[in-house]
Amino acid sequence: MTEHMKLSRRGFISTMLGTGGALVMGLSRPVVAATLGAKPWDSFGEGAAFTPWLQIDPTGKVTVYVTHPDIGNGVVTQACSYIREELACRWEDIRAEYAAPERDHALGGVYSEVGGPLGYFSGRSTFEDRRTAYMTAAAGARERLKAAAAEAWGVDASEITAEEGVLSHASGQSAPYAEFVAAAAAVTLAEEPAPKPREEWTFLTKASPAKIQIPEIVTGRAVYGLDVRPPGMVYAALRQSPVMGGQLVSYDFEAIRDMPGVRAVVEVKPTEPGEPDRIKPAFPLGASVTGSAIAVIADHYWQARTALDALPVVWDDGPGAKWLNIEMMEEAAMAAVRAPGETVELSVGDVAAEFEAGGTVVEAEYLTPYCDHVQLEPLNCTALITENSAEVWAPAQHTQQAFFVTVQETGLAPEQVKLHQTYVGGGFGRRVFGDDTRMAVAVAKGYPGVPVQVIWSREESVRQGRYRPLMGAHMKARLDDDGLPSALQMRVSGGPGFFSNGLANTAFPLVVPNAQIESTVVRDFHIKAGPLRGPGYNSFVFFHESFIDELAEAAGADPLDYRIRIYEKWEDEGWVKILNVLKEKSGWGTPLPTGQARGVAIGNWGMGGRPQHGTTLGAVVHAEVSTEGRVKVHRIDVAFDSGRVMNRDAVQVQLEGGAIFGLNLAMNEKLNVQNGRIVEGNYDEYPLIRMADTPEIHIHFEGLTDHDRYDEIGEPPVGPVGPALASAIAQITGKRPRSQPYREHDLSWGGGEA
Amino acid sequence: MAFTLNVNGTDMEVDAAPETPLLWALRDHLRLTGTKFGCGIAQCGACTVDIDGVATRSCQFPVEAAEGVKITTIEGLGAEGEHVLQKVWTEMNVPQCGYCQSGMVMAAAALLKDIPEPSDADIDLYVDNICRCGTYPRVRQAIHRAAELLKA
Amino acid sequence: MRAFARWFARLAVVAVAAVVAAYWYGTRLPSSPFDGVQAAAAMPLETGQYAARVSDCVACHSTHDGQPFAGGLEMGTPLGSIHATNITPDPEHGIGNYSLADFDRAVRRGVAPDGRRLYPAMPYPSYAKLSDEDVAALYDYFMNHVEPVAQPNPPSEIAWPLNIRWPIEAWNIAFAPTDSFEPDPEQSDFWNRGAYLVQAGGHCGSCHSPRGVAMNEQGYDETDPAFLSGALLDGWYAPPLRGGSGNGIGRWSEDELVAFLKQGRNEHGVVFGSMMEAFNNSTAFMTEADLRAMAHYMKSLPRASEPLWEYDETTTASFAGGMAEAQPGAQLYLQKCSYCHGRDGQNRGTFIPPLAGPSSVLADTPASVINIILNGAGRVVSDGVPDSYRMPPYRVQLTDREIADLATFVRTSWGNTGDAVTPEEVRELRERTDPFSDRVIVLQMR
Ligand code: FES
Ligand code: FES
Predict the structure, then answer these.
(1) In this structure, how many other beta carbons lie within 10 angstroms of the beta carbon of residue A593?
(2) Which of A51, A568, A682, C303 is the least buried, fewest Cβ under 10 Å from its Cβ?
(3) What is the ipTM score, two decimals?
(4) Whole-structure pTM value
(5) Which of A309, A455, A630, A674 to mutate to test the interface with C (most CBs of C within 10 A)?
(6) Which residue minimizes the CA distance to atom 4 of ligand 2?
(7) For ligand 1, is residue B39 a contact (CB within 6 Å)?
(8) Domain end point (choices B56, B77, B98)
(9) Domain finish residue from B60, B77, B94
């Protein structure tokens, strides 16, 4: 085994001869490995101290070990693309496997240190540290193959080319990689090659491979969390306190004991988060705590679920029951923004003095409701717990978090825990905390010795969410003589866990000379919030951009031109560029029939207050509202600036999906509350956009500034589509929807007759 | 109770209560997990299978009614991905998380059998499945493309 | 002038006397066979519990989240809401101080111990036919086996003077029979048992018999051809329970009818709407023998002749090929309904009911069809186990126009002979069944 280029503080690139003569590239950690003993890790070939990133087997098939789970965003394919760029193998020969978190832990973070706490996070595959890691490993493998061939052919390695899995030399010698795999594993390079500079890329940014796992998906072979079937597995149907924070009082197992297939009832007591000493989770463990729950275990899921439905259970609802309906909570959120906020998030200039100066002052209030992710695969997780081991199969959005949660919940040593990442049927932020994993482990602890698949029904999944928070906003601005805002005051409120970070870090408040942003937490909201595709952002952009629209109206300006005037003050030219692209491509300003209009909005996800950061995205929505008030969206134009893009088609797909997601949030989604409980449980009451409601979507790449970054794509469209639609609705009907979802508003106009 | 189901051309035995939804008989008893559970109330279409040529939501189809009919699941559509829709889906990068996609493909397959050259309106009617990831534009394009290939 | 004054004075005296007499009559206590009778020793739980199940007391005298029999259920009436009362043995708020005779007067005569008349939302005109044994059993059950709950009765929302109760006695005299059940000697004991259950405790006529202008049921037994001939109530159409021939249960066998009442489903239909509540709370708990008797009785009732429904295959065939030219209702059916109900509109086992041929679809009124599309169905609880084949509500997904198109398609396909449905009819029901509307129907009369 050889050790060469120092990849990081603690890890070394190295190679080894894997099972059956494979070439394995990775990192080695001899010091840590010594404490582990020499037991081989079965799924990774031999060698306890070795952590593979890449393996080429003697038939030339390439396996890439990927840390970030693919939740539909194409991150696994992106990792494979890096390998393809440097290794120059055939795309068809690449397959991927998830990198085991237990191995990462045992070897001191060999995988996870790339990307820090987000090393196992399902996003950000295009960030530079990840790219470098994969490309370094692949380049090293390529050079070893060349060296092995050079030795066999008696030529200089630098004269050998590697292309499409074939090594060739001008002398006419040529051979597939497979022939030299074993020899390459023994090669020692004088120096590890550095990844190619961007100018030399032939695959990255040029090719747009489709997701490599699609053949598995369209044949039904892909194994999602709900599809794992370890031998002897039983099923658990789960119910948690219908009012969050409530407690189980009693249940009557006798009533269901004799139902077919029923094995047991397991009660789960609420957990305390604690902070384990040997693990350092990416997300605070407090967010993963479970509430009071009960699960029925049976041979088959249908039996478990039927028995659960028949099981008499008494709950103590707890304090949350005081919220008789959602209006009470909305009023509390709005009351909080009608007074000065608890926390000043941003303060520039003197807002109060400006307001005292008089002139045109515009004020408006906005509200966004609780929304669930309703990811299509309901929450689930499978766990096998014994006295001294745990094995878990999780559709996690952060594999390592699921691993740590398991360690903590079982009290086992990390070495005794094994975690399998499965396919994930949608995440959108719902599966990052590991609360689902913890619940499954807690249930399986109560029925040890066999694998237990714990399934949340759709209703349970929706009613026990970690929601987009209910947020209220009060906005106030003063317009200067030129019609632009000279002062902006924004007050935002929401329950605990709502996302005020990012609130002060977007461009609008940064270009107004006097700005103050304040936030208030409504502490007695008992409903749990969490990240939902563009957390915080998906509400703030609605508040900011709807308000800018109202300011444009007050100033008598065209909403798009008005935004250009506002955002041209911002140092990042991407904003104006996007607005100009939209102006040109969307048909902005061309006449539309009565009842139709276009609205525009723009935002940035991830900028953190800095220019040339994050992804800026603008949308123009062309909508129609019938006189009865029925909204139809005809077309959405999207222009964006993530700096650059890696895989054009992957970006396009994410933007299309994100635009639809944003449209859905704005138009349709809302959870109601009754006596503290979430009312809606399934798609019948929580409607989603379907094929027939899907507008034409045009994605414009012309907004890209070619700044040197490949920023995130999944979240950005979710912010601007909603306010752009609100603008169109306001132009058509004269009624501006200041709360989401718009379907709840009476949008009839012109007498309301059809 | 024992039921004999004809799935993907083979007779298979299922021992389940008569009211058990076909979805769970397929997934748990027969271990054909390509058919997905999304809602359980016939709203999402993730569980779509073909029964005697008609797209059917298996979560609301009792196993007691599943004897004597021909059931085709995604596994039976083209086990190696040879069906035109499976190929087009792969080429056109249709799926995102992929969880809804076996249902989408099954609904699209039933559509193409009924209407070989479907209009956009036909697609709206036949493919009323939910995709939270928002793959609808791609699904639509892919169906049109498959229809073209079938015609050629 | 003086003559007129005298005449007027006399008239006033007569009027006052009439009112006093009516008041006296309207507040007096009718006699009870149990007057002066002490209740017998406590009976086994099962005896009275069964009688209470048959009479479905729990359906009205409990709320969804409340304690059994503690009352509180709101019933919308055209005059304002009233609430079912606490009938637990709590002495202050419930019936703890009732004697057996008091109890009897309330159940069979609609008269409270203080002479106050109950609103006829309480089906005392049907319960009048309950046997003395069943009344005693019910009393025993409520006094000895039900947990007392100290829950006050919410005041009725009917305003003065319409909240004065004694004039109800006039309604009682005109419309409420007081005769006890008389077995028909021409018929078998089996038939008579069924007749007793249907007419008395089952109070099936409360929903299934048409009502007159004063909300009075038309007929309380088989001697009236209107009895159980189908009615519209609470936004649902309760189909005829006369099965001698014709559509509906006319096409069902006695066995199928028994299965429907015992399991909540058979190949012809699944309980929904108000019947689902009656099933979940009452018929599901009845003995097979009693259900058989009821089925036998209902099947014996003759029915006015009607055009017989026959399955028509052309609808099914119309789905093959392009749908571009199809009616909007057919398109919507394909898109929203066919995945479960099939293109043939036939049942799927006993869990997915047919849309071809059931009486709720053939009825003159489209209420049930609209209502179930708007609001879906709850879960049928059979043997304590809620099933999972519930119709989802389409209230938030479909517009009035779309539901009207869909309902029209269903009512005119596969040989069904209903009329077209208008968006206005849908809007009306949408508002009245919206739980947040102030015009909501909870219960009108039952
Ligand atoms: S699971 Fe059957 S339609 Fe959703
Ligand atoms: S691809 Fe994720 S739900 Fe459709």
Answers:
(1) 7
(2) A568
(3) 0.92
(4) 0.93
(5) A309
(6) B131
(7) yes
(8) B77
(9) B77
